[in-house]
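User: structure tokens for this one?
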Amino acid sequence: MGILTAYLRKWRLQLSTGKTVSAAYHLCNREAKRELSVSVDNKRLEHQLAPKYLGVRLDRTLSYKRHLEEVRAKVTARVSLIRRLAGTTWGASARTLRISTQALVFSAAEYCAPVWSRSPHVKKVQGNEVLEN
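Assistant:
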């Protein structure tokens, strides 16, 4: 951490200790669950088992299971909202529904897809499974 602190000082950067967390990634369960004690400027960083980085939840095996569960919940809620807009007697036009679906559902479902698309848990957000629930 001394090297990181020196780098930050050299370039006059400041680490936000309130937003910075520590995490361990290891294939051995015992080692991965070990809580790290990392300090920056004498402030201990919070340890998280599955921190969020740029909107993607990282778990210790990088299977993205927890991230995909969160995406599924978000997409399901948004699909429910679109269904309410599509009432049979008063519903929004097809164009409005299509634009709303693209903006609300597809954007959430496809965010960072190249990162997690090879996960064994990708079926949680794939196909009609979300739409049927």
